[in-house]
Amino acid sequence: MIWRHLLVLSAAAIVPVPAMAEPGLPDAAQVAAALDAHPSVIAARERVSAARASADARAIGPHEFTFSGSYVRRDIDREGRFDEFDTQLTRSFRLPGKARLDRAIGQHEVEAAENLAEDVRHQAALVLAGHWWDWLEASAAARVDAQAVSNLERALAAIRRRVELGDAALLDADLAEAALGQAQIMATQSAGEALLARGRLETHFPALALPPEAPDVPQPEAEPAMLEALRDLVLANSHEIAAAEALARASGASAERARLERMADPSVGIRLFSERGGEERGAGLVFSVPLGGGHRAALANEAAANASAAQAEATLARFTVRETADADLAQANLRIAAWRRARAALDAQMSALQRLRRGHELGEIDLSDLLLGERLTHEAFRTEAVARAQALRAITRIRIDSHALWLAD
Length: 409
Known about the structure:
The chain is an alpha+beta fold. The chain has one domain (4-63, 96-263, 303-401): Outer membrane efflux proteins (OEP) (Up-down Bundle), CATH 1.20.1600. 69% of the residues lie in helices and 10% in strands. It has a four-stranded antiparallel beta sheet, with no helix packed on it. Helix 5 runs parallel beside helix 9. It is found in: Cell outer membrane. Keywords: Cell outer membrane, Membrane, Signal, Transmembrane, Transmembrane beta strand. This is TolC family protein. Residues 1-21 form the signal peptide.
């Protein structure tokens, strides 16, 4: 029978693949290596190193020793020529409280950079999962279409044999050949889409070793309670929220630092001089301090406004992540329900097809009606395969967003 092979194919598709670390997913160690090698993840790690270096610089402070000096050869009438010099060594010092705030700003910025790096890895994992399921979904559809072509080829051969024996009309052969042509077009398109999806995955994640053929898509398994728990973990484990809160703390410390900066840091140093060829020599202390004005006040106001904006952005990040968590849960439930309906529709279509075949064998059903049933069964198998992949895609997404898959904190 034409669709018996597809039924076997569909049943085999829901059997877990033992070669995979998890059914339908690539090996976790290979995924980790692929994510580590992704340019966005590498760039994020370097930004963490830059943030740590910036924190070290803040802790040390911007002030350094400054050496200045002058040499003059003076010529005085009737007195002669004299060598004179003047040297000065000065250094600015941070007023109390500024060094503590500089260290706090650096620590918060490092924390933000680390969380942003983890979030970049998170986004790279979502991209990898998206490309992976694009490949598996397209390949599953291509396998269904290829099986349909094979089955219709055998059906056409059988009908042509019946025509030769005078047991069928030429019209039946024409109808079967037309159905085969349509199936071949669909199979060619789906095979091309599978190749494109594989190429996209290989391009973005060359470190991920792909099997020669896409693994079969397993049966979705996710209890509602498990999905609810994953939804809560999306909020609890969000690096996006942690990064926004760390940036808000850094902005708050920067605002306090700018307020203290309205009183500028003083400079203290020593001065040595020699005049009239050494006849006059001296040493002393020098002191200077900039007198702050409207410019420093404006900078302090700017920093305070930026701190308020950062607090609002942290609140927005919590809203965004909550929306993501709710959307992930809704999408997973929706896709699982859609797959179950598609599976039930497939079972019903297979039952109808068996009745059509029996009616055709008894001469009660025309070949055109039977071919329509065959086409509808093909579409039912294809819809079920795509729905199965989309359900697994949604489950994978909520697992990644909750850090239950591929992301170890």
